[in-house]
Amino acid sequence: MLRGYNAAGAGMIAQQRYQDTLSNNMSNALTPGFKSDRSTLRAFPEMLIRAYDSQNIPTQNNLKLPNNHRVGAINTGVYMQEDTPLFKQGDVRETGFSTDLALVNGEMPDENGFNFYMIQNEDGDVRYTRNGNFTVDSEGYLTTADGHYVLDADENRIQTGTEEFQVTENGQVISPFDTTLLGIAYHPNANDLVKEGNNLFRNEGAAVQDAHTTAGVNFRVEQGQLERSNVDPEQVMTEMMRSYRLFEINQQVVKTYDQSMDIAANQVGRIN
What we know:
There is one protein chain. This protein has 2 helices and 20 strands. The longest helix is centred in the last third of the chain and has 36 residues, at 233-268. The protein has helices at residues 2-27, 233-268; strands at residues 37-43, 47-57, 63-74, 78-85, 92-94, 101-105, 114-120, 126-129, 134-136, 142-144, 149-150, 166-167, 172-174, 179-181, 184-187, 193-197, 200-203, 209-210, 219-223, 225-227. Helix 1 (2-27) runs antiparallel to helix 2 (233-268). The protein folds into 2 domains: 2-83 and 232-268, no CATH class; 92-227, no CATH class. The radius of gyration is 29 Å and the shape is elongated. The protein is of the alpha+beta class.
């Protein structure tokens, strides 16, 4: 009986966490360059049930031999193992603003390879993003909408001095102040990147490479355009409804077990 409680309760918790992931995806459906999260549900290890008893042997001493046989396996529930970003190119739309840059991937030498802009966070560390919705701050530096500095290929801040600058398809930034190469990183396995908030990723795996010089890496930068989120709102809504129904089913199972326990405790066990 208690195993049923645990299994149904674990199912409710897993679906609640899945709903949180889906809600976050939906809330970022309009965030430029956002990569949707995919949740992985996994069952707890199965438990093997065996029956142990003894068998009477019709002998003079009434011998008893121990006996056990396999009954079967029982599943103890499910849990949400992890969230992993879906690194898939989003649609590109035109904005007309010179500070908006869309990074469009071409062919990659690695199956899970992906390109990113290089960003400097508030601690001075290098982070990576696909959000090209940039702006120019009061000091003339190219920054993200959250105020993080955009870096060049040498990990230096890019100073354009004005919003009237040009960016070529290969990422060269041409402005009255300076001419430099936009910092574009290539990661051979983007699944090693971890979301850090504000649409930024940090690397916890293989070394990040320079996309400009890495053999086989192809990309182009389109100025005045933005890469949209790769979230599919219709699919997310469908998954949210499906997850909610599964949550309700597990909730009903818990109620049924609770009613059975109530009957067992207050009616079956009652002494008249």
